[in-house]
Amino acid sequence: MHTLEDRSDEALVEMAAHGEATSFATLAARHRRKALRIAYGILHNRADAEDAVQDAFVRVYRNLSGFRGTSRFSSWLYRIVVNESARLLHSVRVRPEEVELDEECISDQGIDPERVLLVRQCLASLPERLRVVLALRGPEELDYAEIAEILRIPVGTVRSRLHEARRLFAERWKELMKDED
Amino acid sequence: MKTEDWEAAAEKALREVLDADAVSNKPLEEFVAACIAGRPGRMSALVEWISAPRRAFAATVAGSFVLTSVLLVAIWCVTLVGTPPAGRHEHAVFPMREYQLADMTTHVQEEGDSGNGS
């Protein structure tokens, strides 16, 4: 017998749309981490990223019955995450540079808090359109076609934006490292 | 270091930070319950502002003050509409008095004339 974990996203969406909360919980467990990384890449702080992801999942839950399956569920979800992150980014109240580090939590993960701040600065220095592509590509490496589908731009544009984002990120990183020395 | 080395170092740093900092403190059950209940991640500015304890008290006091002021203004307006303005009152009386005076003068003159003539 198939467990919920074995089922496809689309099957879980259908079950969740019929009121099965455990199916929705399985979807959340499967995609929350990646969604959080995307939102973090755009908003460059954890608290705002968590808010954006929760808002995105609230929207997903409300619109489950409207999901037509013409695109992958993950693409649909990540598009909503990108939109919610952008909405939060443009709201007056978000000031990522003023968000303090949860140093205790970061130290538990075995990383220097100073390094976290430098990465945040590098992300913040990128233009939004480049940051979004970098966030989507992320360590999980969504393929170019899926990023293109999420952002509704050509694959070639994804490729060039990603190249530009990596170059600018590395340049900024280099500057900050030299300042540190 | 070469450009490629800097790019690799930057990417490594980004990966490390995402692994360490882009993690949620909220348990999955709590997260799912909030989503199903439709609770947004961030409350509206007004709700968030008011939810601070001291501000809640300040907001209650300010709200009561505004409500009382509105009520008093409303009562004052109703009273004002109910009473005729002073000017309108005088206008209503003055022509009458003028008429009466004129009438009385005529009477006096008529009486005087008839007295002289007789």
Major β-sheet annotation of chain A: none
Distance between the termini of chain B: 138 Å
N to C succession of SSEs of chain A: HHHHHHHHH
CATH architecture of chain A, by name, is: Orthogonal Bundle
Helix content of chain B: over 70%
Largest interface: A-B, 50 and 34 residues
pLDDT < 50 stretches of chain B: none
Domain module tally of chain A:
1
Oligomer: heterodimer
Report the C-alpha radius of gyration of chain A, rounded.
18 Å
CATH class of chain A: Mainly Alpha
Secondary structure blueprint with pairings:
The complex is a heterodimer of chains A (181) and B (118).
Chain A: H1 9-17, H2 21-43, H3 46-62, H4 73-90, H5 103-108, H6 113-125, H7 128-137, H8 144-151, H9 155-180
Helix pairs in contact in A: 1-2, 2-3, 2-4, 2-7, 3-4, 4-8, 6-9, 7-9, 8-9
Chain B: H1 3-21, H2 28-37, H3 45-51, H4 53-82, H5 86-117
Description:
The complex is a heterodimer of chains A (181) and B (118). Chain A is mainly alpha-helical. Chain A has a single domain, classed as RNA polymerase sigma factor, region 2, helix turn helix motif (Rna Polymerase Sigma Factor, Chain: A). Chain A contains nine helices and no strands. In chain A, helix 1 crosses helix 2. The radius of gyration of chain A is 18 Å and the shape is globular. The model of chain A has no long low-confidence stretch (mean pLDDT 87). With 118 residues, chain B is mainly alpha-helical. Chain B has three domains: 1-41; 50-83; 87-118. Chain B is 83% helix and 0% strand. Chain B is elongated and about 120 Å long. The termini of chain B are far apart. The interface between A and B is large, with 50 and 34 residues.
